[in-house]
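Morning, I've got a small favour to ask if you have a moment. The fold is given in discrete form, as structure tokens running alongside the sequence. I'd be grateful if you could look everything over and explain what you see. No rush at all, and the record is pasted right below.
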Amino acid sequence: MTTTTLTTPASRPALSTRRRWTVLAVCALSMFLVGLDTTIVNVGLPEIGRGLGVGTSGLEWVVDAYTVVLASLLIASGALADRFGRRRVFQCGLVAFGTASVACAVAPSLGVLVAARAVQGVGASMLSPVALAIVVNAMPDPRERARAIGVWASVFGLSMAAGPVTGGALIAAFGWRSVFWINAPVIVATLVLVAVFVPESRGERARRPDLPGQALLTLALCASVGVLIEGPRIGWTSPVALAGYAVIVATTAAFVRVERGSRDPLMDLALFRRPPFAMAALGAVAVFVALNVTLLLNTLYLQHARGWTPLATGMATLPMALGATVCAPWSGNLVGRVGPRLPLLLAGGFIAAGGLCLTGLAQDTNIVLLLLAYLLIGTGFGFANAPITNTAVSGLPPSRAGVAGAITSTARQVGSAIGIAVAGALVTNAGPSALAAATHPGWLLVAGCGLLLIPVARAAAARRPVTS
């Protein structure tokens, strides 16, 4: 990946402290929207299924159409922002996201809803990495940046964990379409705030678009998630599944070859030879696999197996939201003071403990145990995001801030898509009475994802703590 020179405070007037933190607040609002939309739909899936007359595999596409497209386009969007201006691309993303949200709200069929969710993913891809790049550009001081990333992670963690609560309340009051209508006023407010407070920034040298790499990455991700979602229905050894495996291998190999030979690659694969960066990306995937497995299994178990309402199901995740909200800024401060190792170890321990609590889940498991498990997982999630984000951003040249944020966000969304697909595959053929037992491998996977953060912490510790 070639480097460019980022417009820095040395080449433009430095923003005041109040302006810098206002920029953070505006960008965090968009991040809240992206995170919320990733999880708010989860709690409404059973209601969407009843309203549109579709089964579990179809419902998984409602979630993964968004996350797969988002994951596929994040890096390209980051590069476009560096080329054409981050604020401009950010505003385009807000308009696309808002328009698609309205289309989701009025969708008459599953096909239209899935297509609109994919367009939402296009818009969201212009928000997440671009907003992070704007924040990094506005805050050149490493310590202040670490604190800002802690706040950023707190908002993102809150949005991901609060999605089910918000979704449950909206569905109870207004029906499932309201989870998409709610985006419209937030988009309008954010557009106004961006126009007033967010400065423009870009890289000085434009990079050529890597269209072959973008196409291959999208195809590889779509094929991988498609096989995971449809595998239980078509059979894991069926000719269609075998063809899917071949497509995954071929497109992945072609992507690696194209990226190695490109002058301006979509993704610089040499970065993954650096253990801190590679392990940060792997950790992001693991954390979001764990989170999304938890959210989907929680939704299906409580609503299908125990007959809870969407509102009650969403309320059950409040401990998760609390843990994420409280621990994320604390984690950001720890990263700034002592480096990433301690918060990553705490994250891994809490997530693993939460998953292990539910490996014996039954039809009548005590609600106290459920709430404890969700609190532990939410706490781990809160501790994880700041060190992972900071390590990944620090692993790339500052001039590639847009791409740095995009790679981290891509890893998160890949984890989200895999988590939804795996969780859905586990329970696709399970009736209400067998659903609790069918979730057991999922909870073991959550615990395993937590344990994976231990080697991630060791690799991240190789980087020096943030200093002024």
Notes: Residues 142-174 form the longest helix (33 residues). Residues 1-11, 464-468 have pLDDT under 50 and may be disordered. The chain is about 75% helix and 0% strand. The chain has two domains: 17-195+274-460, 211-264.
